[in-house]
Amino acid sequence: VQHFSDFELVFVGKNKSAQTSSRYSGTPDPIHVNDGVTNRFMIHSAAGDPMPWVMLDMDQPHVVFGARVWNRLDNTWNERFTQISFGVTNNPAVWTAFNSHLFQLCFYYTDVPTVADNPIKVNCSKPIVGRYFAIYKNITGLSSSQQYINIFEIDILAMAKGASLCVSSAQSSFPAASSALLTRWSGLKSPRLDCIFKCTAQPACLFALVIPGNGDCLLFGPSGGLAGFIGGSCFRCVAVLE
Description:
Layout: E1 2-4, E2 7-11, E3 17-20, E4 43-44, E5 53-71, E6 84-89, H1 93-96, E7 104-109, E8 120-137, E9 150-159, E10 165-166, H2 176-182, E11 195-197, E12 207-210, E13 217-220, E14 226-229, E15 237-238
Antiparallel strand pairs: 1-2, 2-9, 3-5, 4-9, 5-8, 5-9, 6-7, 6-8, 10-15, 11-12, 12-13, 13-14
């Protein structure tokens, strides 16, 4: 468990369903990439794989903040962990047919890690909501011996369910689907609302509006439908998981 600002981050539970693009002969089933064992069952892509990837189904959407990966350490094969994208999506199509373009990029790792870097830790450039998490490799310019993913374990860092995410940016506009609803509420007639906070247009996200003058909050779903009354001052807190 980690705490950032005033919200809580936790590691997503273990033993999630997993898939890989390919398997090197004799290597373990991909389920072991999320079984809590960090030094025994190595997930290893096969030779000739044009874009090696490992993907996890987290069972439900999470607000993902980052990850840590236990990399291979023997010989110099730790150096294979480079040109790796960390991605998150809520699109179930990826589970049937992997498509890197359907993932939102959390982080692109271009360093060449040393043994001391294990586990490799990354933070997303911004929180991303989704059910599916993947790492996938760009093999462009790499030697044939570097074109593999060989790792032991993946941990995913996400916001604790029920916590609130505090954001630093406010937007002065809102979707047309919301505006019709807002005009029905007294106190929201002014074209200048105190603030509006939106998350990433993902199904698991909500956003809050502050009513000018009294600080009360109205909670809206991603479609603009009214989800509830929060009451009191909501400050800058949004992105509550449904």
